[in-house]
Here is the input.
Amino acid sequence: MKVSIFDVAKKSGLSVVTVSRVLNNATSVRPKNRERVLQAMKDLDYRPNASARSLASGKTGIIGLMLNTLHDTVLDAVITEINDYLAEHDYFLALSISQHEDTFHRSLFQEDRVDGVILLSPTDPDMYIMELKKRKIPFVILDNQQRTPSAPSVIINNFKGGYDATKHLIDLGHTEIAHVSGPSLVTSSEDREKGYLFALEEAGLKPFGIEQGNFNIPSGYNVAKRWIESGTLPTAVFAADDFMAIGVMDAFKNEGIRIPQDVSIVGFDDQVYADEFHPSLTTIRVPFKKIGRQGVNILLNLIKDPSKRNATVELDPKLIVRESSGVPRHSS
Here is the structure.
């Protein structure tokens, strides 16, 4: 029969509460009583399981992670980093994938089931914030799509990313630079577009055109097809994510338009396969591993001290130059 915390209490002649305090390394236990509990654990070959640790500490040892999709390689990198870093702190990670608030209410993210919650790229964070606060569950938002001062967050400097991508193309000599934006009302998309416009204005250039995509390959492909059918092409394209950039590349290559000889292309995110295409994709690398680690640090600090002020950490992306961008033909 498996040894329980109650067996340890009986063997030591002390209460379950005292055994729990020993398991939780409480300083209030008398040294002699601590020794009696440790000796009883040794004699019984007792190893505390998750339930015992929960009883001892009042914590579950579980962090909940809510996200909208797993169909994104960069999110996979974030989740892996979160999982590994939480494991270093003796926490388990539980996933919930949903786009609907009713699922959230039925989810495992109850105050007695998780010690904290990580919201990864929520499209409507306000939907969750009120409920989490009402339940007094510590939480952090990663890649927050709304600048919410009342919510601890880790965000990306998307304006800088958009600026750096466009400035790279300008420095190569491009003057007819188009932009494929993400969905409207998405903060990251808006900020990347603002960075694009600022870089052009700074250089005294006007946008070749801004076309809205949907952060997926087909939308980038369709935008490029419209350019091809119009007979008027930009010499360079900055797409607000790698999926749309790949769609643009696919459409151009199918029509014999060479990259970067005829059109240069820059994406955003640095998906894991961005350097495996031919030509490999110049892009803006988002520090997704750092996002995960920073988010865990913020959340664990809130779990230890719920009275801590909300923290917002902003991380800078980095331009990664590969084969899909080059000087325009008239400059070569």
